[in-house]
Specification:
This is PHP domain-containing protein. Pfam families: PHP. One of its GO terms (molecular function) is 5'-3' DNA exonuclease activity. InterPro entries: PHP_dom, PHP_domain, Pol/His_phosphatase_N, Pol/histidinol_Pase-like. The chain contains 10 helices and 9 strands. The chain is α/β, with parallel strands linked by helices. The chain has a domain of about 190 residues: Metal-dependent hydrolases (TIM Barrel, Alpha-Beta Barrel). Strands 1-2-3-4-5-8-9 form a 7-stranded mixed sheet. The two termini are about 35 Å apart. Helices cover about 40% and strands about 15% of the residues.
């Protein structure tokens, strides 16, 4: 059984519709796939319908990649199998999505002031769904000929953290986010904690703190993790009783259509989802 627990569709910053993501997942030889769009569950139904309609159906795992912030740095949590209508969580997701729009509009304004010929309408059209983000702005910059690639937009010259056009956004404290997802009946995994080229580098103490809050796993096998980082994270997860997961973090054409490049061991997946915490046992 081949399991990929982290990928994106064009509902957030991927390039493929949810149904196409499911079709490509099966073509890549996957048996289980989680759709984890940024701060939204809008692609769940389309993905679920497509997964079961395939000639050889996939096991679909509804998920999300939730925006958090720790000590001023962006941190991402993967949540699975939770109730998106749980009131407190739903309110926070709505606030995050609303702020995404406000932030993106301000970043476009700053770019325009810097002489970049893009418009909010272009960025909004590229986003399509409700979860607009910096990759959509970067794609508009590529289309305008300002930068040659999306990665070239993520520099201090443009829209990287601390960049000339960067704007901070609202994000949850990660320990609180873990508790919210658990409260909604879900399972939480820390996404790519040592993805150095993205600036996501969190020490052991952060993982220990989140484990105490109810974190269930760590994304160890990720395309942006070095062998040394993977070894350290695997040891740490074992000592904390956390599941070790692996995933492609596929964004379609933006990441070279890499579904299935990294996977989660079936035993780790089954153990993780079997230990979903009932609400009255969640850390508070």
């Amino acid at each position: 059984m081949r399991i990929d627990l982290h990928c994106h569709s064009d509902v957030s910053d991927g390039t493929r519709p949810p149904a196409e993501v499911m079709r490509r997942a099966r073509e890549a030889g996957l048996d289980v796939v989680a759709l984890t769009d940024h701060d939204t569950v809008a692609g769940w139904q389309e993905a679920a319908d497509a997964a079961v309609a395939l000639p050889d159906p996939l096991e679909f795992v509804p998920g999300i990649e939730l925006s958090c912030k720790k000590n001023g740095d962006s941190l991402h949590l993967l949540g699975y199998l939770f109730d998106p209508e749980e009131p407190e969580l739903a309110a926070e997701l709505a606030r995050i999505r609303d702020d995404r729009v406000i932030r993106a509009e301000r970043m476009v304004e700053r770019l325009q002031q810097l002489g970049v010929d893009i418009t909010w309408a272009q960025v909004r059209d590229l986003a399509g769904g409700e979860s607009v983000g910096r990759p959509h702005i970067a794609r508009a910059m590529v289309a305008a000929g300002v930068v040659p690639t999306v990665d070239d937009a993520f520099t201090e010259r443009w829209i990287a953290a601390g960049g000339r056009a960067h704007v901070d956004r609202y994000a949850l404290d990660p320990a609180r986010a873990v508790r919210l997802l658990n409260q909604a009946g879900g399972v939480t995994v820390l996404a790519h904690p040592r993805a150095r080229k993205r600036g996501y580098v969190f020490g052991d103490e952060v993982i220990e703190e989140l484990a105490a809050a109810g974190l269930r796993g760590v994304e160890v096998d990720h395309p942006d993790h070095t062998p040394a980082d993977r070894a350290r994270l695997r040891d740490l997860a074992g000592g904390l009783g956390l599941a070790v997961t692996g995933a492609s973090d596929d964004h379609g054409a933006l990441t070279g259509d890499r579904l299935g490049r990294e996977t989660t061991a079936p035993a780790a997946y089954r153990a993780m989802i079997s230990e979903r915490l009932p609400a009255d046992r969640c850390a508070r």
